[in-house]
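Exercise 7. Predict the joint structure of the components listed below.
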Amino acid sequence: MKETVQNLEETYKHILKMFLHQKSEHGLYEAQQFSKVLLEHQVSPEELISVHREVLEELFPTIAEEVLDSLDLLLEVMMGYGMAYREHQSLRDRQLELESEIEVAANMQQTLLPKEIPSIGSLDIGVISVPAAKMSGDYYHYIKDDNQSVGVAIADIIGKGVPAALCMSMIKYAMDSLPEQRLQPAALLENLNRVVEQNIDDNMFITMMYGSYDSRTHEFHYSGAGHEPGFFYFAKHDQFEELFAKGIALGVSRDAKFREYSRKIETGDLIVFLSDGVTESRIGDRFIDREEIIGLIRNYMHLSAQEVVESVYYELAKLQDFQLKDDFTLMIIRREV
Amino acid sequence: MKTQSCVEVKNEWGIVAARQAGRSLSKEIGFGSVDQARITTAISELSRNIYLYAKRGEICLEVVEKPSKIGVKKGLRIIAQDQGPGIPDIRQVMVDGFTTSGGMGAGLPGVKRLMDEFTIDSEAGEGTVIKATKWLR
Amino acid sequence: MNLSIRYENKADVVVLYVAGEIDAYTAPKLREELIPLAEKGNNVKVDLSDVQYIDSTGLGVFIGALKATDANNSRLTLVGMSQRVQRLFTITGLDEVMAIEEEEGSK
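Solution:
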């Protein structure tokens, strides 16, 4: 209910007079409730002191001058509190605006992420992606073609809000719309890099790993743009190896060229893509070792790819009391047959 | 008839003198005690900025008038100016939360909220002029 | 979450000594100091000997500074990186576009 300033002043005077006439806890309670009304109407502290002074003068015509003077001093001091309060309100409004922008961007991101894991005859694919805050800077995407081949990408967008979501749409578009590039990861990254570099802020960049699995030859061709190395697992030797593709992050250098790597994937082998939220998990005050991550994957390797990624996530999140400092994305691809 | 009284600010005594001039003039114009305090605080913050950053400058006060529904409305205008280093990024200083001299809520957005009208002009290396006006209600 | 920056004007280069962590909270502070210097066309050297940790937001500041120095024909050099920080620059490929030195000659 909207009150006029005058009404509020009248009410305050009334509450004060009643209280001075008869001190009671009820009176204090009424005052406390009334302060909420005052705050709702953004009455500043200095205004209140002025009203208080008037009431005292009214009720006690013979009041000592010094008492009233002391209130003048108090008013001056409370000016500072009033200014801080108004700044606080302004900052809160700004925060709400920012939160709603993030909300918009997070919704955009949801529409850009894959709805489901593609089913490719010979592959078992699992993925988990957990944001540290409202919106994740991590993005992943798959593109399946008619030859039972699949392109997979994982990316970490450095930047926030709507601009970051726009980067995600650039990646999705690059993968969805350039069929002949899917088997040429280096070319895809080169094109994407040019688009990204021209369209993002100087402080933003994207790290990305893109690979294409050819079901006919069981070869995995991949290129990287500054992204955290993943792992290969070779069942024949029961060995984990670093999956690294050297290349500069997207958006830094307009004419960057990328190198293409290839690996033959045998039955039982694993391809592991991850974001740095995985490798920068903290245990106490130290960072986790890559060897420890391998250990965790080994523990759960006998399960389906999806179960592996979920279990590894759970273990790492538990180590950090479920308070992730960075977005966490883990993807595992296993050749079944 | 437009009278402008100016106070030089080059130390903390200047700040106090500017405050005094502001309180007297606002009382004369007919502002209530709360608005007197607001005008004085605005003058205080602006003078402090001059003192801290430009080292010297002046605060000028004038009575202003504008037409209103019931004739003429009176107000007080503060003009704070200096030939100091100027403000390289005015947008930055007009954002809440930005303060180089500590103290919550202070700063130019705070001054703007105390007054009714506010304009700022500044050029790096040339100086700064801030005008703020409060009208009788 | 703490970052301290001081700088020294030397003969033909401005040296920024940075200490602490460069992350999403402290990166704006670094940006405020570094970018204007880069945009003015100075040669800038950033000493990271006392930097324990940089995250991607921090890298973004250096990328912005690199673009500014490139545009102004001046040079950005980074020195004194810890192994951890060096690894970050290597993985992101920034070691191939940024001048990185092992040791700072004289402090």
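Discussion. The first strand of chain B starts at residue 4 and ends at 9.
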